[in-house]
Amino acid sequence: MAKSTNAFTCTACGASHKKWAGRCDACGAWNTIVEEAPLSQGPGRGLGAHKGRTVPLSSLATTEAPPPRSLSGMEELDRVLGGGLVPGSAVLVGGDPGIGKSTLLLQGAAAFARRGASAVYISGEEASAQVRMRAQRLGLADAPVRLGAETNLRDILTTLDAERPDLAIIDSIQTLWSDQVEAAPGSVAQVRAAAHELVTFAKRKGVAIFLVGHVTKEGQIAGPRVVEHMVDTVIYFEGERGHQFRILRSVKNRFGPADEIGVFEMTGAGLAEVANPSALFLSERGQPVPGSAVFAGIEGTRPVLTEVQALVAPSTLASPRRTVVGLDSGRVSTILAVLEARCGIPFAGLDVFLNVAGGMRVNEPAADLAIAGALLSAREDSALPPEAVLFGEISLSGALRPVAQAENRLKEAQKLGFSQAILPDSQKVEGAGGMGVSRIADLTGFVGEVFGAG
C-alpha cells in the first residue's frame, strides 16, 4: 500500500506531526490535529507539506499616495526618470564604451548631493584617483559625494548598509563578484547574483541604486535578460562618436512613461543639457536642398523635429547599396517597395543612403511620409518646401494613415517657424494654430501634389 504524503497539522498552534494524534504535543490542545495535503505534487520534492504565511490582500480601490520623488536639478535626467528619483528604485543604465555613462552619473550624483541627498559612488572599473580627476575636470570636486573603489559585492553591501545613502551608483555591474558564486566576474551567474542582491537591498532599505551595464555589439545590455526584468527602469545612453549630441532614452519605467528622452551635448566641461532639442537638430539646416525633409516626431511625451536626409545615386554594383543610419532599415525597404509597386517609381540600380541629422534615432512609423519625401526629393533632384514638416504612416497599399498627438507636433513646428504641414487626409487635427495644412490621401497623391507627377 502506497505511503501517504499528507501532513498532519494542529489548527491551534500550527505544529506539524508525522501522524494523527488526539492531543497536540506542542500546545496540549485536544482534537485539533487535522490531515492536510501537501502544497505541491510536482516532480522532485516540490514545495513539501510545510505551509507559508498568508499574504495580506487589498482591493484595487485602495488609495495610496504616489511615491515621493527627489529632483536632481538636471531637467533632462529628471524627465527620463519620470519626474524625479523614487526612493528604493533600481535603475539600469547601458551604453557604448566611452559614450559618457560615467560622466552622466557623476554629474547626476553631484546634482542630487548638492540638493541635500546623500550620494555614494562605487567604482569597479576605475581607481578613486581617476574618478577624482574627472570630477575636477567637470567642476564637481566640491560636491558632497562619497567615493569608493571596490568590486567585492559583500563589502559593497556592508558599506551601503552602514552609510544608508539616498542614492548609490555602481559602475559597473559586470565588475562585481560574489564569494558565493563559483564563476568569474562578468559571467552570467555573477551578474545575475549581483543584480539580485543589489535590487533586493534597494527595496529593503529604501536606497535608490543606479547600475551601469555594458552593452553587446548589437547594442543590448550584456548579461542575462533577467537583469532588465529585475530593475524598475532601464535607460540607454545613445549617440554617435562623431556627434556631440547624446540621447538618454528610457525603454522601461515602472514609475513613469517609457520611451522618454533627454538630450545632452558633450562639451569640454561635461554634458550640457539641451532644453530645446528641435532647434538644435535643425540648427545646421541651411538653404533648401534636394533629399531633405523635416519630420515632426514624438519621443515619449516630447515633440522633437528632426531632419531626414537622403541621397540617391546610380550604382555600379550588381546589388545596389542601402545604407541607413538612425532609422529602421526594414521600414525603409518597405517604403521603397511601396513606392515602386504603388507609384511606379523604381529604385532598382540606384544606391540609397538615408540619415537622421544630429545622431538622432527615429523609430516611430509616423516618420514614413518624411522618409518617402526625402527619397523622392533626392531621386527627382527637387527640394521640398523649406517651410513644411511631414508626418504620417504609409500602409502597404500606399494609403496614408493618421498618427497620434498631431496637435503637439504642429505646435512644435510652428514654434520653430514652420508654416505648412503635410499629413494624412484622415488625420484629425483640432486647431492647427494658424499653420497651413495639406491633406493627402495616399502616396500617389503625395507624388502628384508635391513633385507634380501622377
Automatic annotation (TrEMBL):
<dbReference type="InterPro" id="IPR004504">
    <property type="entry name" value="DNA_repair_RadA"/>
</dbReference>
<keyword id="KW-0227">DNA damage</keyword>
<dbReference type="InterPro" id="IPR020588">
    <property type="entry name" value="RecA_ATP-bd"/>
</dbReference>
<keyword id="KW-0547">Nucleotide-binding</keyword>
<keyword id="KW-0238">DNA-binding</keyword>
<keyword id="KW-0479">Metal-binding</keyword>
<keyword id="KW-0378">Hydrolase</keyword>
<dbReference type="Pfam" id="PF18073">
    <property type="entry name" value="Zn_ribbon_LapB"/>
</dbReference>
<dbReference type="InterPro" id="IPR020568">
    <property type="entry name" value="Ribosomal_Su5_D2-typ_SF"/>
</dbReference>
<keyword id="KW-0346">Stress response</keyword>
<feature type="domain" description="RecA family profile 1">
    <location>
        <begin position="66"/>
        <end position="215"/>
    </location>
</feature>
<keyword id="KW-0863">Zinc-finger</keyword>
<dbReference type="InterPro" id="IPR041166">
    <property type="entry name" value="Rubredoxin_2"/>
</dbReference>
<dbReference type="InterPro" id="IPR027417">
    <property type="entry name" value="P-loop_NTPase"/>
</dbReference>
<dbReference type="InterPro" id="IPR014721">
    <property type="entry name" value="Ribsml_uS5_D2-typ_fold_subgr"/>
</dbReference>
<comment type="function">
    <text>DNA-dependent ATPase involved in processing of recombination intermediates, plays a role in repairing DNA breaks. Stimulates the branch migration of RecA-mediated strand transfer reactions, allowing the 3' invading strand to extend heteroduplex DNA faster. Binds ssDNA in the presence of ADP but not other nucleotides, has ATPase activity that is stimulated by ssDNA and various branched DNA structures, but inhibited by SSB. Does not have RecA's homology-searching function.</text>
</comment>
<comment type="function">
    <text>Plays a role in repairing double-strand DNA breaks, probably involving stabilizing or processing branched DNA or blocked replication forks.</text>
</comment>
<feature type="binding site">
    <location>
        <begin position="95"/>
        <end position="102"/>
    </location>
    <ligand>
        <name>ATP</name>
    </ligand>
</feature>
<feature type="short sequence motif" description="RadA KNRFG motif">
    <location>
        <begin position="252"/>
        <end position="256"/>
    </location>
</feature>
<feature type="region of interest" description="Lon-protease-like">
    <location>
        <begin position="351"/>
        <end position="454"/>
    </location>
</feature>
<dbReference type="InterPro" id="IPR003593">
    <property type="entry name" value="AAA+_ATPase"/>
</dbReference>
<dbReference type="Pfam" id="PF13481">
    <property type="entry name" value="AAA_25"/>
</dbReference>
<comment type="similarity">
    <text>Belongs to the RecA family. RadA subfamily.</text>
</comment>
<keyword id="KW-0067">ATP-binding</keyword>
<dbReference type="Pfam" id="PF13541">
    <property type="entry name" value="ChlI"/>
</dbReference>
<keyword id="KW-0234">DNA repair</keyword>
<protein>
    <recommendedName>
        <fullName>DNA repair protein RadA</fullName>
    </recommendedName>
</protein>
<keyword id="KW-0862">Zinc</keyword>
